[in-house]
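[Discussion] Sanity-checking designs against the backbone

I'm trying to build intuition for which residues belong where. Below is a structure token string of 143 positions. I'd appreciate it if someone posts a full sequence so I can compare it with mine line by line.
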């Protein structure tokens, strides 16, 4: 079999697997802050996040371009490896649930960890981050 025929065969198989996984996917996926459903439910938070992101990108266009490239690479990877991406998503959901349980058990320690993470992020990026709280912003609701 020629290399081009192999590539075409693999691409066809990957397409079939992707189509099958989409056909059997859940009808109601979890909304994320980047999806319209989240923005409909949280218009204020969505608008604030957009404004922070746009301001950050105006100040750091090269960083935003790197993020766009990485996002495109990740999307391509997930199209080629849907099972691995789904496993990674499930692991992240599990870790998030564990962290929420820890925070419910010890809110003070949780807030200290959040503040330390914000500082590391701020130092790493040389300023704010578009999805982090603005320095002069009020604390988020406990919803």
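Best answer:
Here's mine. Compare freely.
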């Amino acid at each position: 079999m020629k290399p081009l025929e192999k590539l075409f065969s693999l691409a066809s198989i990957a397409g079939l697997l992707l189509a099958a996984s989409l056909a059997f996917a859940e009808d109601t996926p979890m909304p994320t802050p980047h999806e319209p459903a989240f923005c409909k439910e949280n218009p204020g938070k969505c608008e604030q996040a957009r404004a922070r992101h746009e301001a950050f990108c105006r100040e750091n266009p090269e960083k935003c371009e790197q993020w766009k490239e990485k996002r495109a690479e990740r999307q391509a990877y997930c199209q080629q490896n849907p099972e691995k991406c789904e496993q990674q998503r499930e692991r992240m959901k599990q870790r998030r649930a564990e962290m929420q349980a820890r925070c419910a058990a010890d809110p003070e320690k949780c807030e200290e960890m959040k503040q330390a993470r914000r500082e590391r992020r701020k130092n790493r990026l040389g300023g704010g981050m578009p999805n982090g709280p603005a320095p002069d912003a009020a604390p988020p609701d406990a919803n």
